[in-house]
Amino acid sequence: MSMLGEQADATVGLSGKRLDAAVARGILSKEQADRLAEFWVRQERLEDSDAPISRVDAEEVRFVRGFHDVFIAIGIVIFLFGLTYGLQDLGSMGVIAGIAAGSVWILSEIFARRMRLALPSFLLSLAFTPLFLMTCIGLIAGGDSISVFEGARAGEPVDLDGAYLLILPTLIAIAGAVLHYLRFKVPVGVTGIAGGVLLLVAVLIESVVPGFVVDHVTWFTLVAGLVCFALAMMFDSRDIERVTVNSDKAFWLHLMAAPLIVHSALMLVMGEGEAQSTFYALIVIGLFLGLAFVAILVDRRALLVSGLGYFGFAIATLMTKAEVSEDITLAMTLVLLGCFILLLGSAWRAVRRLVVKPLSDTAVMSFVPAID
Known about the structure:
Elements: H1 3-24, H2 30-47, H3 67-86, H4 93-114, H5 118-141, H6 150-153, H7 160-164, H8 167-184, H9 189-208, H10 212-215, H11 217-237, H12 245-270, H13 278-298, H14 302-321, H15 326-346, H16 348-356
Helix pairs in contact: 1-2, 3-4, 3-5, 4-5, 5-8, 5-9, 8-9, 9-12, 11-12, 12-13, 12-14, 13-14, 14-15
């Protein structure tokens, strides 16, 4: 990289810190800061077009800016754990969760809205939605709602009225998650809202067709994962260069979608068959390679990471069928899996150029980052 390119990178880092400070002091809004950062990046590329400036990593997660964030985050976790533990004698899940949710909101006002600390904001946003949902269920639906699906798991019909009890608490919890996101603008909050909506859909289906979701849970989670993936791609398509908070929103949605898709797809493939069979292992490897192709195409590693465990299991199965000892099977599986991750990780850009190049003139490229 040229000296000019190095100076540009240093300027971007320094400007980023100044933007964070301006947002913390209320001089700029978060949206204005994001747009200004995007403008600077594009201008620097135009001004130094002859120098090979490396693009920011497509999955750079901006939620830790220093050990100060980590220190505050540790304090938040300890405080919330101690608070809920100390209130356990109250006996009411709704009251305990409500006090915890209220505390999270107050802490968010301090660390997310006023101080704009990245990691504490992330943890508080992540904690608010489930705590508020538990509050709504406990205070509105009561204890009967907790056992709504227990009959279905035991093979008994689901109580229609019981399932209906969860609709109102879930709606209120979603509204609370939306308000928390609008107030504090933490990207991971979008994932909490999406999770609440998926829960609401499951509750509505169970209310209309008792036992349907429980009996077809694998299909439901697969569809839910695909919906989350589509939503993530919507945010990605708004920020092809991955320089605004839309990229962060997409990252967390991809992270939620990946295990839902991978686990559901492999469970459907396995069915009632023998998980230790050679055929099953080959199918798993084939699916994993397909997921790897999608991950490389959209420049998101989440799908790939979610399937690594199944990929390793498939390799171990094939080695077991070859009558290799257990110790050697374990060692070789870990070595091969590690080599795969290291080789793909170190050559990610080269592999992506090879995969994406045949699609360079298609409409797909309007939704994914360009080849660099």
